[in-house]
Records
---
Amino acid sequence: MNDDVRNIVLGVIAAGISATLGWLARTFLWRRKLRRKQAFFGLPENSESLLVVNRDPAAGEPAVHRFDVYALLELSALIKDCGAHLHVVTQDAAHQGFGERTEFCVGGPGSNRRMMAHMSAMLPGVRVNIDAEPGPDRGAFQIGGERYRMDPGITEYVLLARLTVGDRRDARPVFLFCGQRAITNQAATRYLARNHERLTRKYGTGSFVLLLKVINSQAYGPDVVELVEDVTRAAQTALPAAATAPRNTHRAS
């Protein structure tokens, strides 16, 4: 074998080794990223999850608002990416506890009984005005001592929460998407899909409650979202007894 042939063979071998090492490195990083994502969502390979669907309060018959359908589709994609399975149930048919499998619950307490139950059990510092009559406080959030009113289509708010209960290390989380309007529910699911890596770095697999502001949804849809504040402590601290909830206001207590 002359020098030219030997150099060609060595070059091919070196290229093959480099390609193999590069593939192994990319595979390792992809798997590590996937494991972090699965841990954050509580969705190991082939696990089961629950998607709780709310109802459209404006519809005469049981129906789901189109923006909530979009939210469910985005959540379905996240679940599929983790290699998990999902079961879709309506808000009045979810009769089970939490912690056994990851749950994604969409819609405010006025359209989702399951959301009302979760907020009462886990977010005692939050009240949502579910009065059907028009007024400045319709749909408003009260979190601790702060009130957040919506200006429909201009400024709207949504709570995005990841909650775990008890000390079980294997307890699966509950994700809440509680918005003042259906489009804000979709905005929260999209925010989670885009920012879950940053949220993982900050919170790990712990609980958090974030207040998000959806800006000018009538022009930008669910895409322009700002983080207002981390309200975990206020949301999980019971409101004073003197702050009695008015009629047609859901009190999470």
---
Amino acid sequence: MERHAFAMKVKDGQMNTYRRKLGEIWLELTGFLDRNQIKNFSIWNADQLIFGYYEKADGAVLNAEEKSVKDRLTGEIQDTFQWISTPGEDMRLMYHNFGVVRENKELIRHRMFMTKLKDGCEEEYKARHDGLIAQRGDTVDPGPDSNFSIWSAGGYIFGYDEIDTTMERDETPEEHEATVAWETRQLGIMDWITNDVDWMTGECHPASRRLAWHN
């Protein structure tokens, strides 16, 4: 299975129009996804940012006709946003923790977060997360994280996580202390767009919203 992601920024005053146009093309868009066996497609929003995630079979490519359909559907809504990622290309994968794939999503919750890297901090962010992968040994994680990836483009960070709720538990005091230490270090290289660490900083940011989803 291949995982893919894209990102864009909605133009000033165009969010309502973006949502309306997305609704207008949704039926045809989901037909396109089904025909091409594109799974677990979702679109997320915070502030004026849009993040999209989807999965498809290894090596699957669109034929010319389906590529034309994709381009036409994108054209229907493209005047409402500017691309952050490069169209047709993935963003840079900054971190991954791909565990056991859950076919049944009913007991899965999602976490989607957004941050903005401080100038010149992209490589430091990548190095810190490479360190986490090295600590884990890049093995398959049984959970609760079953599908966690972090992507970057245009100086932004976008995280997507599927979490098995049956395996979640409260942090121990030691784990909580480690979380606070990690997030405090991260504040030196990035600023939050979503509200993931408002509990720690006392700031107020918007929560990410899932605007659309199709399995």
---
Amino acid sequence: MRPGRPPSQPFPPPAPASPPLRVLVADDNPVVRAGLTALLSGHPDTTVVAEARDGREAYEAAVRHRPDVILLDVRMPGVDGISALPHLVGLAPVMMLTYSHETETVREALRLGAGGYLVHGEFTTEQLVRAVRDVREGRPHVTPGAARALLSELRGDALAHEPTQTPGIEPNLPSQTLSQLQPSVGQSFRSRFRLSGREAEIMDLIASGMTNQQIAAACFISEKTVKNHINRIFAKLHSTTRSQATAKWLGVA
């Protein structure tokens, strides 16, 4: 060894691999449970530590195994997913994973604390694994079917706030049903804001109460892109806050 040269240092030991994310799968269909278990456990970053057939079993398994994430179906015999949800969210982040995308169900699940809502058939294996990890970190995921359900309800609420026809004036409209007329009424009212299609979609999600993270997940874009859209939306609506923009968008300002 040359004088003055520091002794060689051994390479530092490799950092220990992080343990796989531990998942509880709750679904009354044994085929779905087996498929999800095989899919997730076959991925090096995740493992299924327990399965459950209903909400009661899910709660008992969550208390026993303390999973990192719970995948929860909506419709199950006995205690269903929505009934069990308030008891499960205190134990671990919950991701709804179901075939149900009715508006009321999606809204109630998110209101009760679900960290995401995935509809079967609307995601790939890699998207599911990423969504599970993201929900564990507090980043929500909502697949398009669930997002559309929320948007449909929001648009219905907005139409309920549309200005009514002035008494004594009969509009000269072709013979159409109310359901056929409603979409064009809402579009006509909002056209004055001159939002692009994407901006209108994001404004709908803002008005539904979604955070930037939730909007990014629903639209499959980055949070930075969401913020850029929101800045342009606020400029067009002459608003500085989400509440101001929502009031104008719903026609109540």
---
Amino acid sequence: MARVSQEHLDARRRQILDGAAVCFARNGFHATSMQDVLKEVDLSAGAVYRYFSGKEELIAAIASEVLETVRGTLEQAARESPPPTPDVLVPRALATMRELRPTTLDTGEWLFPRLMIQVWTESTRNPGLTAVLADGYAEIRSAWGGMAQSYKDAGLLPEDADVDAMARAMIALVQGFAAQMALFGDIPPQALADGTRALMVIGRAT
């Protein structure tokens, strides 16, 4: 029997994750069955269960991928000189997610923000997913902390600035923008940049 290539295996896994993400964003995690996922990806149960044991493992894998993408974006930005300021970096992080995961729902709405809310909601009742998110957010906090340190090194932040506190605030800012997208519709990238820039200059107006 011919061996299945790694490229084929990776593509099939991607197909399953993308289809599951559509189902979760469209109908919610608990209203989605594995049969819904099978229908969405047009695969047999055996083909899907070869990769994932069920919905819980699917949503954990989706969350891990998102967190890894955000972390990678921040770590790359921290290596730039000069480092991109938050008004540049926040829109970039969301633009990167849109580029890598551009799938939309039937309405034309970008899938990711609604999916993110489903992940958060499920994590409140699923200890396994909570652990995945906790580990991922710890890594993202560390990556944002690296950004804050790069701002210090560039003379953009005072030396006594609390880098972890800044990391938490920046995560909250990105989450807040994404939640607004999920609840009220898309936000123009320029609005993200302008709003973040305005926060950066509070107290410095003359």
